[in-house]
Amino acid sequence: MARPDKAAAVAEIVDSFNDSAGAVLTEYRGLTVKQLRDLRKALGENANYAVVKNTLTKLAATEAGVEGFDDLLNGPTAIAFINGDVVEAAKGLRDFAKANPALVIKGGYIDGSLMDAAEIGKLADLESREVLLGKLAGAMLASLSQAVYLLNAPLAQAARLVGALEAKAQQDPSVLQGGAGEPAAAVAEEAPAEEPEAAADAEAPVAEAEAAEAVETEAPAAEADADEAPAE
């Protein structure tokens, strides 16, 4: 490979390392072209599966700051550069390897850490990001429901208290006299202050009745005086 082509190939692998969430190294010896195509299709958008040269990959890994790959770079090598969900990509590789034993997972570099084949298998056993987020959302909703219940419990008690007071007021209106916050005793003490006005209102008809009687008493006397007067 000419030096410019070699440099371009190394730069491309470096970009793949830098742009991906992780990389899983595999040995594809024995896989047919069709099987490799099926593997790429199975991974979909989660990973870009590329056949690489070991020498160029060592140079690219060193330039990208990826350490520990040298021991894994032997034999025919292809790397799954993970672009999507890491767990889903690991599941896809594991499931394909079960159906096609020629694919051997050698290890990987995930989130800045080197992982062996057993650890990649454990990663594939995890639930997907969507499932974990769904469970987290469910747990958060359950916690919010409990919090709302605790916050609303005192309000419900207050509502029941108001309802009881309204029912009591319908039976005994004096319960609500005196305004909010004033004791019933104070309301009872203020009530007699209005009695003089009520008494004055009660005495007014009596005075009017006495005046009417006086007019009726005087009226016959005036008529008698008129009868006794001499005719002119």
Please provide a brief summary of the model.
This protein has 232 residues and is an alpha+beta fold.
| CATH homologous superfamily designation of the largest domain | Ribosomal protein L10, N-terminal RNA-binding domain
The number of helices is 8
Total beta strands: 5
Number of domains: 3
Radius of gyration: 50 Å
Might you state the CATH topology name of the largest domain?
Answer: Alpha-Beta Plaits
- Spatial order of the strands in the main sheet? 2-3-1-4-5
Low-confidence stretches: 178-232
Helix content: 55-70%
Structure in words:
This protein has 232 residues and is of the alpha+beta class. The protein folds into three domains: 3-126, Alpha-Beta Plaits; 131-176; 184-218. 63% of the residues lie in helices and 12% in strands. The protein has a five-stranded antiparallel beta sheet, sandwiched between helices. A hairpin with a 2-residue loop joins strand 4 (104-110) and strand 5.
